[in-house]
Design brief:
139 residues; alpha/beta; six-stranded mixed beta sheet; disordered N terminus
Length: 139
Amino acid sequence: MANSASGMAVDDDCKLKFLELKAKRNHRFIVFKIEEKMQQVMVDKLGGPNETYEDFARSLPANECRYAVYDYDFTTDENCQKSKIFFIAWSPDTSKVRSKMLYASSKDRFKRELDGIQVELQATDPSEMSFDIVKGRAY
């Protein structure tokens, strides 16, 4: 279980699914949520390898906080295939203050569990994590 110094406990499934995304490329994205009653971060949704960024953006609830990772594939100007793993802290303005505080205080501890994050985004509304922003941060 969690202790007050480290924030939430992290369900093993979170790390397992992240490794699948990173190494096996089984998932395009993973959405995580904090289960308050269990004091634990859990997998909320998985996006298949063929899902788009729009599918990912739609999977985030409009008025609840979430953590997410997104595997962004792109081609460089030199025609090289590359991939970057984004960590997105989704904290919409319309979510409850308690929830925002809980996600903010547990973020760094949770991120440390996911080895291989390359870019971090903090978003309070969809415009702060638009595809253009992701594209711009990847290069």
